[in-house]
């Protein structure tokens, strides 16, 4: 049971290891792109190519009878995106094993990768757990850590965790079925929650510190993408890092693109433009060094492609 790209390595591992995958349950096709045409979840494509039966209910309970008839030993879930009710959880004889992209009980909920980056964590990992009626509250089976480097963005961290999840799941299933793993209850006192991401979460407030803003850019570089209004122009920021107050000053601040708040050094004002970065003043005296951006109705560009025009304006 899974839907997005995060679930793909786990499904491919199950197929590659020769498990009898009786069915794949994923979400319905959803409108995608400018045309709004329904597109299948990537997990559906993988399953159909492997000749696996696919269910796409709006609610898991809609196919409960069909799933029960499969007589499954285990359910495996990975970013399925739906809460399973108690009656559904009782269907498989061995329970429901979930692959979660955090070191539980830290970052329960749908957005653990985003919040690890938002909070500037130095490490994260993957946990396999037995699903219960709560949200990522079930007992832990196995977990594995990995570092988060300072230049790591969501897309890279996501792919590494998806691969790590498949590896941890590969070790979990045989050991769990053989009774070699004692499920360990989570310490609720250490729990934190990572709620669903909203578009407004990516709107940059330059009164925040440069480090905090850089973390927002890192966390949201795939969706919804960090955005700001600079000199009356809306931009999306795909790559940026925190800088000191004297970095990249190759031209005088100001101009239509220059100062959003009208005063040199005010958060949101342009500190300078160079081939290396567009520098924006932030709270606390630092700067956000933007290296990859997109103007409204334009294409995504590295700063080296447009710095000269920005400098002239």
Give the structure's gist in a few sentences.
The chain is α+β, with helices and mostly antiparallel strands and 313 residues long. It has helices at 8-16, 42-49, 64-68, 86-89, 112-118, 154-177, 210-219, 303-312; strands at residues 24-25, 30-32, 37-39, 54-55, 75-77, 96-100, 123-130, 140-147, 226-230, 233-243, 270-273, 278-281, 287-295, 300-302.
Structural description of this entry:
- This protein folds into two domains: 5-190, Formyl transferase, N-terminal domain (Rossmann fold, 3-Layer(aba) Sandwich), CATH 3.40.50; 199-312, Formyl transferase, C-terminal domain (Methionyl-tRNA Fmet Formyltransferase, Chain A, domain 2).
- It starts with 7 loop residues before the first helix and ends with a helix.
- It has helices at 8-16, 42-49, 64-68, 86-89, 112-118, 154-177, 210-219, 303-312; strands at residues 24-25, 30-32, 37-39, 54-55, 75-77, 96-100, 123-130, 140-147, 226-230, 233-243, 270-273, 278-281, 287-295, 300-302.
- Strands 9, 10, 11, 12, 13 and 14 form a six-stranded antiparallel β-sheet that branches. A four-stranded mixed β-sheet has the order 5-6-7-8. The protein has a two-stranded parallel ribbon with strand order 1-4.
- With 313 residues, it is an alpha+beta fold.
- The chain is elongated, with a radius of gyration of 23 Å.
- It has eight helices and 14 strands.
- Helices cover 25% and strands 22% of the residues.
- Residues 246-263 have low confidence and may be disordered.
């Amino acid at each position: 049971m899974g839907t997005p790209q995060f679930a793909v390595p786990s499904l491919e591992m199950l197929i590659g290891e020769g498990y009898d995958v009786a069915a794949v349950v994923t979400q319905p096709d959803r409108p995608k792109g400018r045309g709004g045409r329904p597109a299948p979840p990537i997990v559906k494509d993988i399953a159909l190519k492997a000749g696996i039966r696919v269910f796409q209910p709006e609610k898991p309970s809609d196919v409960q009878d069909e799933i029960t008839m499969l007589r499954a030993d285990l359910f495996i879930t990975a970013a399925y995106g739906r809460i399973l009710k108690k009656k559904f959880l009782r269907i498989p004889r061995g329970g429901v094993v979930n692959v979660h992209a955090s070191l539980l009980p830290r970052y329960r909920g749908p957005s653990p990768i985003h919040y690890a980056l938002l909070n500037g964590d130095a490490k994260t990992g993957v946990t396999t757990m037995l699903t219960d009626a709560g949200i990522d509250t079930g007992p832990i089976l196995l977990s594995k850590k990995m570092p988060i480097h300072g230049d790591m963005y969501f897309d890279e961290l996501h792919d590494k965790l998806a691969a790590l999840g498949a590896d941890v799941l590969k070790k979990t299933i045989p050991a769990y079925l053989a009774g070699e793993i004692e499920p360990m209850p989570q310490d609720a006192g250490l729990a934190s929650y990572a709620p669903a991401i909203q578009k407004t979460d990516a709107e940059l407030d330059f009164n925040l510190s440069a480090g905090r803003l850089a973390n927002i850019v890192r966390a949201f570089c795939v969706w919804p993408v960090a955005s700001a209004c600079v000199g009356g122009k809306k931009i999306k920021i795909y790559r940026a890092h925190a800088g000191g107050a004297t970095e990249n000053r190759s031209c005088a601040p100001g101009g239509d693109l220059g100062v959003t708040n009208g005063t040199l050094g005010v958060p949101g004002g342009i500190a300078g433009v160079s081939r290396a970065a567009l520098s924006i003043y932030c709270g606390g005296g630092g700067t956000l060094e933007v290296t990859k951006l997109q103007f409204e109705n334009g294409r995504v560009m590295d700063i080296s492609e447009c710095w000269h025009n920005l400098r002239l304006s």
